[in-house]
Design a protein that fits this description.
The complex is a heterodimer. Chain A contains eight helices and no strands. By secondary structure, chain A is mostly helical. By secondary structure, chain B is an alpha/beta fold. Chain B has a domain of 138 residues: Rossmann fold (3-Layer(aba) Sandwich). Helix content of chain B is 41%, strand content 25%. Classes of the chains: A mainly alpha, B alpha/beta.
Chain lengths: 260, 261
């Protein structure tokens, strides 16, 4: 009985992996099949980027501020107070900024895409597009995945700047440091090898958020409860993908850039 | 006299007309559940065929197989002489441009206005570029369903009957040769149901469409049907004109017609 359950579980998991492979190949095919939906792509960029900006901004600002407040006592104990801008900027640009932005976007965007497409599936809007001879993959899926792949890295960059600004304000609670000196120190601590892997992983994060949201919504069952399931499952799966991608990219970039 | 003439015309249509849809031994199951068992069906050009049956009998599954939304497990589904399950993506897309499908809930794109809903198939399917032509077609389609001023409304602002009309306008805007109606009057009050049924009849007369109407509404069947088939347990148990079936001795057929005036 238990063996049967394990086998069924594995089969379901393999089915799902196969389905996602097919969905991915349809996505790639539809990017190059002509008739790109520019207006929908721009609308999605606005929905995904502009409408998430305030949330990402506030979260990043607080993260930068809190990190300085938490780091300061330890750095002071080591007499390395002047290293605070360096520490914050390296940790924020390399890791915290992209991951926090991606997690926020997974919660906000993946769930909203999952729910929107799930609801379109339930109300037969996707079928209606399909039977009319239009291409729902191109209109709904390609535009959303490309929009998240573009907007999440941009949000991440903006989140980095806002996070560092938060750190500057926190540092001025206790110490006096000029804005220019602080940002000079932040930038001086950074290298090309800090920016590039962060940017690359942000693109992958964006792709994962869009892909998982679209896959879960597009393949949801035809019942009202499946909309909630699609949204919830999109957030959980996208978040897991973000940590997994982070682990892989950090490993690769460590081998390529940081190991001596 | 007129009724008899109409009856003779319908009989001639069934005998001599060109076959637009031909279904032979169609089978479809979902898991262990057999939904369709050896369905055979012929729809003639410019004919309104009504498929009657209780809910869950596989009526909608039949029309979803016709349009390629579902792949049959066995049998043959031919539309304009082409075997639908064997068509590739491009051929299926081409075929679908000739078929209009009115979904049970109308399936309007709820993030778009009514005008954008109608514009969608014109720009994506017919690839029209001329905005004047597009606007003219939209105006005609909206007037055709009796809602000329609904263009700027959102689907959420529309009543059930209005949604069905707009759904119909969205399919008619591309001039389909075949219309498939999935429960067009379900969830509507009797007056609106009758209006929608009459609209279906008008559409057939005006656009000369070949139609399959899936319903369990006898009023709708009476108004729209040239020919009726009745489904039970995944097979067709009776067929004929409304008048012929009304006289049937079959208990199930009788039960459908018992409440009809």
């Amino acid at each position: 009985m238990a063996e049967q359950l394990v086998l069924t579980g594995w089969r379901k998991w393999l089915d799902s992996v196969g389905d996602q492979g097919v969905f991915f190949s349809r996505f790639i095919k539809n990017i190059f099949s002509g008739g790109f939906e520019w207006s929908e792509f721009v609308r999605q960029c606005y929905e995904i980027g502009y409408r998430s900006f305030s949330l990402v901004g506030i979260t990043s600002f607080i993260m930068g501020l809190v990190l300085i407040l938490q780091l300061r006592p330890t750095m002071v104990a080591f007499g390395a107070e002047s290293m605070l801008p360096h520490t914050l900027s390296v940790s924020f640009i390399r890791e915290i900024g992209p991951v926090i932005t991606a997690i926020i976007c997974a919660g906000k965007i993946a769930s909203s895409i999952g729910a929107e497409l799930g609801s379109m599936k339930v109300t037969e809007q996707i079928d209606a597009m399909d039977v009319s001879g239009a291409n729902p993959m191109q209109y709904l899926v390609v535009t959303r995945i490309l929009a998240t792949s573009l907007m999440v890295p941009l949000l991440s960059i903006m989140g980095d700047v806002i996070g560092l600004t938060g750190g500057y304000i926190a540092l001025n609670f206790t110490d006096k440091i000029s804005f220019f000196l602080y940002f000079n120190k932040c930038i001086a601590a950074l290298d090309f090898t800090d920016f590039l892997p962060a940017l690359i992983k942000s693109i992958f994060f964006g792709f994962a958020i869009g892909f998982v949201g679209c896959y879960k919504g597009y393949n949801s069952n035809k019942g009202t409860e499946s909309v909630g399931v699609a949204a919830n499952s999109a957030v959980v799966t996208a978040s897991l993908w973000i940590f997994f991608i982070d682990m892989v990219v950090v490993q690769i970039s460590t081998i390529l850039f940081y190991s001596k | 006299m007129e009724k008899e003439k109409d009856h003779i015309e319908k009989d001639d249509l069934r005998r001599g007309g060109e076959n637009v849809i031909e279904i032979t031994d169609l089978q479809k199951s979902f898991g262990e559940k057999k939904v369709l068992t050896d369905i055979n069906l012929v729809v003639k050009k410019s004919e309104n065929l009504v498929v009657l049956g209780r809910s869950g009998e596989g009526k909608s599954v039949t029309i979803q197989c016709i349009v390629g939304l579902l792949v049959p497990d066995g049998g043959s589904v031919k539309v304009f002489g082409k075997e639908v399950p064997e068509l590739n993506d491009r051929e299926l897309k081409e075929l679908r441009t000739k078929i209009g499908f009115l979904f049970q809930g109308a399936a309007l794109y709820d993030s778009m206005t009514v005008k954008e809903n109608l514009e969608f198939p014109l720009t994506r399917v017919l690839k029209l570029k001329d905005q004047t032509d597009i606007d003219k077609r939209i105006k005609e389609a909206l007037e055709g369903v009796g809602l000329p001023d609904a263009g700027d409304k959102m689907p959420s602002d529309l009543s059930g009957g209005m949604r069905k009309r707009i759904g119909l306008a969205r399919t008619l805007v591309v001039n389909p040769e075949i219309m498939l109606y999935d429960e067009p009057t379900t969830g509507l009050d009797p007056i609106t149901s009758r209006e929608i049924s009459e609209l279906i009849l008008q559409v057939q007369k005006k656009y000369k469409t070949t139609s399959i109407i899936i319903t369990h509404d006898m009023e709708c069947a009476k108004i729209t049907a040239d020919h009726i088939v009745i489904m039970e347990d995944g097979v067709y148990i009776a067929e004929g004109s409304f008048e012929e079936l009304q006289k049937s001795d079959n208990e199930l057929v009788k039960s459908f017609f018992s409440d009809t005036l």
